[in-house]
Amino acid sequence: MKKLYFLLFLIGLQLTVAAQDSAFSRQWVDTLTSSYFFGRGYTRQGMQKAAGYISNAFMQYGLIPLAGDSYQQEFSFDVNTFPGDMDVTINNKKLVPGIDFIVFPESVGSHAKGKLQQADSVTFINRDDKIMVTLSDKLTWSVAKEVVPYTGIELNKKAITGEPASFKITIENKFVKDFTAANIAAMVKGTEQPDSFIFITAHYDHLGSMGGTTYFPGANDNASGIALLMNLAHYYASHPQRYSMGFICFAAEEAGLVGSKYFTEHPLVPLSQIRFLINTDLAGTGSEGITVVNATEFPKEFALMNEVNDKDHLLVKINPRGKAANSDHYYFTEKGVPSFFFYTQGGIGAYHDVFDIAATLPLNEQEDLFKLVTGFCNKLMHN
Predict the structure, then answer these.
(1) Residue 156 domain boundaries
(2) CB distance 46 to 370 below 8 Å
(3) CA-CA distance, 129 to 113, in Å (whole number)?
(4) Does residue 292 contact residue 327 with C-beta atoms inside 8 Å?
(5) Are 50 and 99 part of one and the same domain?
(6) Would you say 66 and 268 are in contact if contact means Cβ atoms under 8 Å apart?
(7) What pLDDT, on a 0 to 100 scale, did the predictor assign at position 15?
């Protein structure tokens, strides 16, 4: 397995001509969304393969582990998975996983058929077999750390004609106790103040698979953020700064910020040494600018970011937002670490579905985001 992702990495190096080259980001997104990583989740070792690939990249770029001799900080948690059968028929129509339906992520497995009774305008149930079918306009999947004693199916309203009346399902679930994941952490040591850090972070995990053939690529969420982070890591490896530059690729963000929470509880460097943390997620668009979470919490730093943007005419708009627990910056903020989380706006609407693919992700602002972050970091080290 190590040989496989190392070969993938060597192929990717062919396009790494310049750190801020958009081809660099495109190669990362194309690679991380491939079937080899199978959604960077909880089946077929998808998350572990991605962790190994990223660790190898840090090593090849010349970064050193943030602490000790390993790039990986392991932790474990419980998670519900769907590794095998995912067959659903409603009203005698066999449905396509991810397009016609998704399974509730906390569902137990089931092999049953029968009739459905209407419970409300969008919910249909079979009490004997503990089956629930709900109608939805958009299918949005997630990850569950528990399993419940029923099976839920979220059905695209356009998938069938009429109301759900009968069902036949075979769904396999596997509840995994103590699933092992790892944050990937590396650094470039500072030239003048090596004990002061600026961190750039992003999560590399996604939803994984729903059944044996359907996986969620996670191009915008968050292969795009990892692409930007690796762009920056590549650049700073050959351009050391006054402060140490730290890079963390978090695991298990989709399971509830598990990896970043673990890091703040078991920090590899003292949290008091972090001058600022910049977290990015959903970095693949940007035609309508970006939104910065915690902008109102740290107005001085937000003003510095806007100075960079205004001077170099990078993004059309930087929208301020207040405190929010919506990505991996959150637990750092709660521990007193000054942090921003930014995400791009405009473009595609795919999110937590099978349509978040590399082919339709524009990556149109990756170069400007690169310039924004490097310019902002420079100001942080001189203010």
Answers:
(1) 85-171
(2) no
(3) 8
(4) no
(5) no
(6) yes
(7) 38
